[in-house]
Structures are given as C-alpha cells and as structure tokens.
C-alpha cells in the first residue's frame, strides 16, 4: 500500500510521485497540481499538454513547457486555430517540443473547437460543469482512479463539440491537474489546501 511519502529534507508528507527529495516534480506537486486555473488559455494549455503527455512522463512535458507556450502563442485559441500546414511543419521541426504530428494537428483542431465553444459558455465552464458531486478521497495509490464517470462524460461532451485526443483517462488527468476535485492523497500536506482553493473557486 503506497500512501504519502515524507520528504527527506523537510519531513512533509506528499503524494509518492512527487518524490522524497526536492526537484521539478515536487515543485509542481506543491505549487500547481490540483490548484484551479482561470481563463480560456490556461484551460486550453492544460488540455493540450495532457494530450501531448500521453505515452510520456509528465516530467518530460514540464521540461518542455516553456517551449510549448512559445510555439503555441501562449495558447491563444484564435492564434493557434489560424495555424496552417506550414505551421505544422515548423512545429515538427522544433526539437524543443514533442514532435508528434497527430498531437500537433490535434492542438490546432482543439484550438478551433475552443473558439467555437465560446458561443456556448466556453471551455472553462464546460470542463468545470463535470465536477464530481462526491470527490474521491484515496488514501493510497492503489485507491486512486484513472478514469471516472465524470471524465467519461467530459470526454464525450468535448468529442461531440469537435475536440480530439480527449479520452476519459486524459480528461481525468486534466481534472486532477486543474483542481476540478482535490487529487491529493489523504494525508498529503496539499490535500486540505487544494480542497480550500477548489471550494473558493466555485463559490
């Protein structure tokens, strides 16, 4: 049974994937994961990066995130939706990002779908409308889910609106990352803080 791991340097309990020693993943765990984000571009960024992460480690995506933000124009939906075949080839030649043609093309498709979704409340409102009524409260990694009825519903809703690379597992990871519910293990020092932030963001 894998519960929270205590940091070797500070004695603070954290979700095991954050590691016991200081580093990029622990910083992400402590300061970003499970905390709400605001605005269309922030939601499009997280959705896009979760899609690029599929089959890779999140550490890889974090290391490349500054480059992703640069080449995708700060995830401005209108600007990315206007990218053409030449832009796809430009991105395929940029070694600073994940050079996967299907994922790059998906980012353009999803940017266009995000622009269209503005007429129906917007991406942020749609994602947050799928928050679970009863948030999970896992005490160990064995109890953690990788999908949920809500992530399946969000996946179907987004696909119906033209989004791609938004499977239920990817959407569950998105929901965890942006604090749709508190994803931290019971006993992790961030759990109570994330729950407070999530409640405040929905008040």
TrEMBL record:
Q: Which EC number(s) are documented for this chain?
A: 3.2.2.20
SUPFAM superfamilies reported for this sequence: DNA-glycosylase
**Keywords per UniProt:** Glycosidase, Hydrolase
User: Region (Disordered): which ranges?
Assistant: 133-152
Q: Where is there biased composition of kind Low complexity?
A: 139-151
Domain of life of the organism encoding this protein: Bacteria
Pfam families to which the protein is assigned, alphabetical? Adenine_glyco (PF03352)
Asked if the Swiss-Prot or TrEMBL record annotates the protein with the keyword Hydrolase, the reply is: yes
What is the recorded name of this protein? Answer: DNA-3-methyladenine glycosylase I
Q: Which organism is it from?
A: Nocardioides cremeus
